[in-house]
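Section handout 9: paired folding examples.
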Amino acid sequence: MRRTLLSLMGTWMLIASAQQVTVTSSTTLLRGMEPAFYPSLNHAGDKLLYSDADAHGLKMLNIATQEVTAISEMNGAGYDAKWGSDGKVYYVTSEVNPSNRLVYRTGRRYDLASQSNEVVLEAQHGAVHLATGTQGMAMKGDKHSYATSPKRGVSVYTTGSQLVVTSDGKENRYTPVESYAGYLWSSVSPQGDKIAFFAAGRGIVVTDLSGNVLAELGNYEMPCWYNNDYIVAQNASDDGYQYTSSQILLLKADGTFRHELTPKSSMTMQPSCGGGKIVYTTIDGNLTMITVDINP
């Protein structure tokens, strides 16, 4: 058994060492115009959503022209804004009701063609979760919900320590791993056959659509799918008060490969992927876009 285990470890090391990753380009975005956080690339990788450090307001950068469009100035708009498969922007804003001092959240949609916003989910007290699907978008509230269509292919969101997966209109809830502090940052792979999410205290977990664990990639955060086989993530550490290091990693979704795209001292964080590009920011809000070549 020991000989077999050593043989398997040796084989894995040969496979991992054979892989090479090269950063083929690096571009500074916004040219220092303003600090930018919570970047979100669209599917084509030619437009980018971003916000300020407090997620107040939401803006869009046209990467080719460097033109910036203000989408919203409302509180919370930039925290979890997502691109729908229809090319529109979906986001949630929050306001405190002056009569009862409770927070109410509203689901909104921005149309790039008409440059207009509309409310798609009326204000309600409680959490509103955005579930990006391979063929549509949904906003799940405690009282009311919204969906672009009844069937959205495969979509996912998290609530507490539950992974909520909808496939062809049928919703299922799974708890693939124990995490008393809950799950975050769930997403579906480009081919719609795998899910990645962060479990507090465990790190990044990859499952199939039935919640079966395929791999645990390490205690990293904010996973995003680079393609169907690779995930980009943030590896950060802190002293309980502030970040002491943060870097961007490229991880193979089966857990067999890890590559540092930036050093720990770079304080780079919040990665987003789209169109074969990777965008991340720094602790000071400086955006960078890179492309990579993966030689398996």
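Moving on to protein 2 of 2.
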Amino acid sequence: MLWLTRPPYLRWFAAGAIVLAALAWDVSERQSDSFPFASTEISAGTAITEDLIEWRQVPEGAIPEPYLLGASATTDINAGDPITRSVLSRTEPLPDGWWSIPIEIPNGVPIGAIIRVVFPDGRAAIGVVTSPASSDGFGVPSPGTVGFPQDVADIVAQLAATDSLVILVEQ
């Protein structure tokens, strides 16, 4: 008596509803943003320029947008890969004869900021932030780097190693 059973109307209705919902999702206009992707192979250390970037549409908020001005690649980037914050490094170029030294500077001090370090004997030196301090997802801080003239770089490096510097940030 198989031919006397009722057809599965409920299953047919559910399948039709799923197909209609998928169709509506596909034709709806979702918000999207332009995001940078590598148009060619980019080797580590290469400055990111407009000719190396291809802008593509991605869903809005899917990937945090990187700051590309003055950035360079920290690793090799394959063609077609997204250019994210994790593969970029921003540094301020230093004048000739200056040295970049890792120093514990406050978070939020931007690249290019002028800082003054005071030595224990009261003397001071001026430096330029070349890369900001940061912290990883677990709150572990990493020092920033600051450029100093050659005549004070040795002293600053020695005192930074012993945590004997007082750091003043120009606002």
